[in-house]
Amino acid sequence: MIRQKISETLKDAMRAKDEVKTTTLRMVNAAIKQKDIDVARGRGDEHIGEDEVLNLLQSLIKSRRESVELYKKGERPDLVAKEEAEIAIISDFLPKQMSDDDLKAVVKELVGTLGATSVKDMGKVMAALKANYAGQLDMTKASAVVKEVLAGN
Fold first, then answer.
1. Secondary structure (3-state) at 53
2. Handedness of CA 29, 31, 32, 37 (dihedral sign)
3. 3-class SS at 141?
4. Domain 100-152, what fold?
5. What is the pLDDT of residues 7-53, one digit of tens each?
6. How far is CA 82 from CA 23, 41, 45, 146, in A?
7. Is the pTM of this model over 0.90?
8. What three-state secondary structure class fits 71?
9. Are 145 and 110 in contact (CB under 8 A)?
10. Distance (Å, rounded) from C-alpha 45 to C-alpha 76?
């Protein structure tokens, strides 16, 4: 489904002669195909699943965010703009991200449900978040919220 949407969007971008979008989507397709090849060697599966595609897209965004920070420190506004444009394009294929308030509410609910009482229980809470809300949240941000909520208990 996501692969199909990326391919359709790539075709539209090529027709519209949108170079930034075309280049970004070609890079995304190449990353997905490379992951397919890597997985096929290990597991024998032909393609990675939708959840793995989502994880790949999130990792591409994460690496671009890191690049943005470095480019800001290096005073390269041209490269910052390029990376931010790529982030926006890739983000279009991810599910709607959970707001900070929603994330905090979900974490509090999970902490109560799982009976987590200290930071030692953080792994259980993070595993439940990943299982139930994969693709809808930034796990780094989620980790900070879980620590905050567990420290408050």
1. helix
2. positive
3. helix
4. Arc Repressor Mutant, subunit A (1.10.10)
5. 999 999 999 999 999 999 999 999 999 999 888 787 666 788 888 89
6. 11, 34, 34, 33
7. no
8. helix
9. no
10. 42
